[in-house]
Amino acid sequence: MGRSIVLIFGVAVCLLLGTAVIGQEAVSPSPTFSAEIAPIFYRNCVTCHRPGAMAPMSLLTYEATRPWARAIAEKVANGTMPPWHANAPSGTFLNERSLTAAERETILRWVKNGAPMGDPRNLPPPPEFPSDWTIGAPDAVFKMETEFEVPAKGEVPYKYFTIPTNFSEDKWVQAIEIRPGSPSVVHHVLAFSRDPNEPPIVLRQRQNAFVLRVPELGNRLGGAAGGNARGVLIATTAPGTNAQVFPSGHAMRIKAGSILTFQVHYTANGKVTKDRSAIGFVFAKKPPEREVLSSSFSNPVFVIPAGDSNHRVDSAIEFVEDARILAIFPHTHVRGKSWQYRMVYPDGRSETVLSVPKYDFNWQTYYEFATPLTVPRGTRLEGTAHYDNSAANPANPDPASAVRWGDQTWEEMQYTGITFVLERR
After folding, report:
1. Are 139 and 218 in contact (CB under 8 A)?
2. How does 298-317 read in b/e, with b if 16+ C-beta sit within 10 Å?
3. For the purposes of burial, counting CB atoms within 10 Å of the CB of 20, is it exposed (0-12), middle (13-18) or buried (19 or more)?
4. Three-class secondary structure of residue 204 per DSSP
5. If we measure between CA atoms, which residue out of 293, 229, 238, 299 comes closest to residue 261?
6. Which of 167, 229, 257, 275 is 20 to 30 A away from residue 80, measured at CA?
């Protein structure tokens, strides 16, 4: 009997221990900031979420991150963060900002379990950021000639600042970066370059869509009806925007005597702030094998009816030489809701090359293709934008009014910037 009791007791202990082990295996430990979360944030978030950058909070340390845990979970769950709006397979774009499904789940589990710190010894070293330019020390820097004072309150209309380069000869540029002087009040900057000796662009309207077609594509194309006095778009900066660094053997030519224009969107932050934004160029060490060309196309004659929640506006550009597209930049204002770009080839085939189903004006993204798009001569790149001018659009300043082309946020644009190379260059 005594031996039986011992055996029974021993079996019971084994069963209990086995149950405990099984339970430990079934319930995986909560992710911690040190071991799992910091590496995700360092890879995907802290370019913007760090001291002195455009984002409103830093995610470099646990102490700075923990108060925002619930907000982070909400933004990650609904796909607002990281801000990436193209619908395409992972790896399509060089500058893609997105989380994997596993990374999203890890962040949500971390917050659900109380957002623990974990063992500080597991914390990876934080990424290092250049104190000045991400492209390295520029060979030439051009700043706004005077500071602009942003008021503490109120809406600030777009401001335009002209900066002469005074280049005595053409310059080959390998990298371009715009640096806001005061990131807290600069929403975005678009930089244009104009060669004063270039002829005007050719605009033709075809089936209610504006088509740009010239004998040779390049810096001769402007961005609005009747020519664009600002020239062509060469660089942008906005929350999350990358500096433009062209592939090896590629460079952009800035013509002698070119004039730069900044379009700056300021947002008041509660205190008077002065800004003097700048652009930096890194020159190529030798003439490139391929010249990177910057151009744009647009439709400036649309009217979006009051209350229309899904108004369509089309534009297109026709390539008259074999080319490769490096990047596409869609641009509308606060009523813009989506973009789609199609390549229509000479044989009649049509292919969607960029889809932005949830366009967000707050994120001005130049979509850089990991593999440049091949564009045979005679191909058309068609851009279709849809707009929500209804009361259902929370960003709409006046759903009771029809909207036309204009520079200001309460007006609208249908504008596309592109960078490309011609195969013969």
Report:
1. no
2. bbbebebeebbbebebbbbb
3. exposed
4. strand
5. 229
6. 275
Domain residue spans of the chain: 33-122, 140-422
How far apart CA 176 and CA 173 sit, in angstroms, is 7
How far is the C-alpha of 108 from the C-alpha of 114, rounded, in Å?
10
- Yes or no: say if 238 and 363 are a contact pair by the CB < 8 Å rule: yes
* 93 backbone dihedrals φ, ψ, rounded to 5°: -120, 140
* Residue-wise pLDDT tens digits, 264-273: 999 999 999 9
Q: Residue 267 is encoded by which pair of tokens?
A: 């947002």
Q: How far is CA 35 from the centre of its chain?
A: 29
Whole-angstrom distance, CA of residue 409 vs CA of residue 388: 14
> Six-digit token pair at 315?
């534009």
Of 412, 408, 351, residue with least CA distance to 382: 351
CATH code for the part of the protein at 140-422: 2.60.120.230
83/239 Cα distance (integer angstroms)? 9
Higher pLDDT, residue 82 or 210: 82
Q: Is 22 helix (H, G, I), strand (E, B) or coil?
A: helix
- Decide: 339 and 356 in contact? Cβ < 8 Å: yes
pLDDT for res 48: 81
